[in-house]
Amino acid sequence: MASSPSIPSEVSGYRILAISLPPLPSYPVSATHYLYLRPHEPKLPTPAAARSLFLVNVPFDATELHVRNLLSIQLGLPPGRIEEVQFEGSQKRIGSAAAEPAKVKKGKKRKRDFERGNIEELEGTALPTTWDRELRKDGRTAVVLFVDRLSMETAYKAVKKVQKEGTMPIWGEGLEGKVPSLGSARYLNHHKLQYPNKDQVLESVNTYMTEYAAREAAKARLQARQRQVPDEDGFITVTKGGRTGPARQDIAQESALKHKEKQKGLEDFYRFQTRDKKKAKAAELMRKFENDKAKVTRMREMRGSFRVGYDVWFTL
After folding, report:
1. Cα-Cα-Cα-Cα dihedral of 299, 304, 308, 314, to 10°?
2. Is the whole-model pTM more than 0.70?
């Protein structure tokens, strides 16, 4: 470890860990980088937050292997106490930085709609990656998840101990040959990875098409069931494709009766319903009264008259 310059121990609740960046062939001068740490306190608390550390100003070339090495071995703690490292802006979890670049990159499942011109990226179906290592933007953050709260607190206290001793851990010390190189070697490797092995590409495409065909078959079976089974209101769901068979009439009628029974007792739920119901009842009584009145009038006119045959009337 190198000697640390005189810096404050904390800033706005963050403990400051000074690390030494080793010289590079293009810039043969060591530099000091400041990493800020504190217990993770997300806006939406999670069970894992109590055993996590929040890191700010992560170096641009940081990998999970770098963070594991820094917060365990370089702080004098036993390895294996870190469960996971999540970097800000990562599209996937970076496992060991020395992962074989030739392996097929497994992406997360993302919803894509084929009808809109998108493709659904399924697990294990992505094409091989063309970069052997992911780089960060300056000032990015990371969350380090430990196996338990005690391990997190021990690492946090070890940072304070390093501050008192006035030493600086050397970034990436002990990882020589375990992480892909930067500089020109990185771009030479990138050029090679742009032309993957045909067998790997074929395997990825076959896996994708198999998974896609299985999902399309499951979707077709679901649509077929929807075309044959009425919903709770007695209606048949209209889906894409031809209808395979009519729904049973008795099932549809039964569903319609159930829906009608659910609506019972709700006729007078609102005041306007009661008012409209009274108006309709009064109008019905008025109509019956007018009909009866007209009937009585006709009966009075016909009183004293008799009919002979069909077409001739005589009046007494």
Report:
1. -110
2. no
> Rounded to 5 degrees, what are φ and ψ at 182?
-100, -170
> Pairing mode, if any, of strands 10-11 and 2-3?
unpaired
Please list, in sequence order, all residues whose beta carbon lies within 8 angstroms of the beta carbon of residue 257, skipping any fewer than 6 positions away: none
CA nearest neighbour of 51 among 64, 42, 62: 42
Q: Which long-range contacts (CB under 8 A, 24 or more apart) does 77-83 make?
A: 77/151, 77/154, 77/155, 77/158, 80/147, 81/146, 81/147, 81/151, 81/154, 81/155, 82/144, 82/145, 82/146, 82/147, 82/151, 83/145, 83/146, 83/147
* Distance, CA of 77 to CA of 23 (rounded, Å): 26
Distance (Å, whole) CA 147 – CA 155 = 12
SS3 per-residue string spanning 172-196: CCCCCCCCCCCCHHHHHHHHHHCCC
pLDDT tens digits, one per residue of 16-73: 999 999 888 878 888 999 999 999 999 888 889 999 999 999 998 899 999 999 998 8
- Nearest-angstrom CA–CA distance, 134 and 140: 13
DSSP string, 14-62: EEEEEEEEPP-SSS-S-EEEEEEEEE---SS--GGGGGEEEEEEE-TT-
Which tens digit of pLDDT belongs to each residue from 71-120? 988 888 888 889 999 998 775 443 333 333 334 444 444 444 444 444 45
Compute the mean pLDDT over every residue in the chain, rounded to the nearest whole number.
78
| Burial (CB count within 10 angstroms: exposed 0-12, middle 13-18, buried 19+), residue 72 | buried
For residue 124, what pLDDT band results from cuts at 50, 70 and 90? low
d(CA 224, CA 226): 5
